[in-house]
Write a structure and sequence with these properties.
Elements (H helix, E strand, L loop, with lengths): L9 H16 L9 E8 L4 E9 L2 E2 L1 H10 L13 H18 L5 E5 L4 H6 L16 E6 L4 H11 L3 E5 L4 E5 L4 E5 L2
Family: Belongs to the peptidase M15 family.
Organism: Inquilinus ginsengisoli
Cofactor: Zn(2+)
Length: 186
């Protein structure tokens, strides 16, 4: 009679799955302690940011200016002082992906600050009349190389304010406003 295969028991599988986050978290750190680094890409302007934006929870002024410009309303080249909480949301997203994949990812920025004129033009596409993009408190993003399900799960985990899921367009909206959730299929 052949030997019984050494199939893992349910308990072994569950124990192994539970250990995965700790294994990934043990991957070597890329940033120095206290640093917050972002790797961002704006496909509308073909501009990038790959730098430290905060050290010991203090926003670096030069990085803040560069991020404000990267997240500008590219339709009219107008920038505003973005809420630093938006950068922290982007960083938290990047950290979750880094833990899950053991590599740094690039976040695509689809929309940051919007002028009232641009926001009005985007209303037929789903832009809210009183969008937090108008106040520099929101960002629409995707992550290169990952689908919407992965993106939505990570966004849900870091969202402290608004979370919008735009399934057909393959991006999420994160903002620093009141906690709420919505989704659009277009």
């Amino acid at each position: 009679m052949p030997a019984k295969p050494d199939w893992p028991t349910r308990r072994r599988v569950l124990t192994g799955l539970a250990a995965l986050p700790f294994c990934a978290a043990a991957a070597p750190a890329i940033d120095r302690p206290g640093e917050r680094r972002l790797r961002l890409y704006n496909p509308h302007t073909d501009e990038r940011f790959d730098d430290v934006y905060a050290v010991d929870a203090t926003i670096q002024p030069a990085a803040w200016q560069r991020l404000n410009w990267l997240l500008r309303d590219h339709h009219v080249d107008k920038a505003t002082d973005m809420d630093p909480g938006v950068f922290d949301l982007l960083w938290l997203m990047a950290q979750r992906y880094q833990v899950a994949t053991a590599r740094r990812v690039t976040i695509n920025l689809h929309s940051g600050f919007r002028t009232p004129e641009t926001n009005e033009k985007l209303r037929p596409e789903g832009a809210a009349r009183n969008s937090l993009h108008l106040q520099g408190k929101a960002v629409d993003l995707s992550v290169q190389g990952f689908g919407m399900v992965f993106l939505a799960n990570h966004a849900r985990a870091v969202a402290s304010g608004g979370l919008g899921l735009y399934w057909r367009s393959d991006f999420v909206h994160l903002d620093t406003g009141p906690k709420r959730l919505w989704y659009k299929r277009f």
